Amino acid sequence: MGTGGRGVIPARSPVAHQGTCVAIGSRAILIEGPSGTGKSALALELIDRGARLVGDDSLLLEGRDGALVARPHPQTRGLIEVRNLGLVTLPVCDEARVALLIRLDENAPRFIETAQIAERAGCALPMVRLWPAAAPLALKAELALRKYGLPSGERCTG
């Protein structure tokens, strides 16, 4: 997303956001959905495949230079809820540029031709809705990132 030749887009103040986020290489996936749809479970599957946790259930989102940046919320930094086990501490990525929003949705379409667009913290993101019970969900999320995600930005820090 360019600045339209008008200079640098100023950073916006971080906003608290309910969602889960993992970084895969230099791009992050923001995962949203109703309670109990498997946001943390999808994050764990992606972490098992090499992703890094940014935050679970509570994040700070900030528009910066035309990109959406996700950071862990200080009160939940490094924690992820593992159903039947409780809160587990994991290594955390302190900041990542979000390239894709995945919405876990039982009414997700069977096929899509393009990603939808959603706005978070003043930034437009490609959004793909995935049916939460349709395995292999982590592989679908990675494929969606590859096909619809914004291009690579800066590397995950932390």
Automatic annotation (TrEMBL):
Pfam families: Hpr_kinase_C. GO terms for molecular function: ATP binding; phosphorelay sensor kinase activity. Keywords: Kinase, Transferase. Gene3D superfamilies: P-loop containing nucleotide triphosphate hydrolases. InterPro entries: Hpr_kin/Pase_C (IPR011104), P-loop_NTPase (IPR027417). Residues 16-89 form the HPr kinase/phosphorylase C-terminal domain. One of its GO terms (biological process) is regulation of carbohydrate metabolic process. It comes from the Bacteria. Transmembrane segments: none annotated. The keyword Ribosomal protein does not apply. This is HPr kinase/phosphatase C-terminal domain-containing protein. It comes from Novosphingobium aureum.
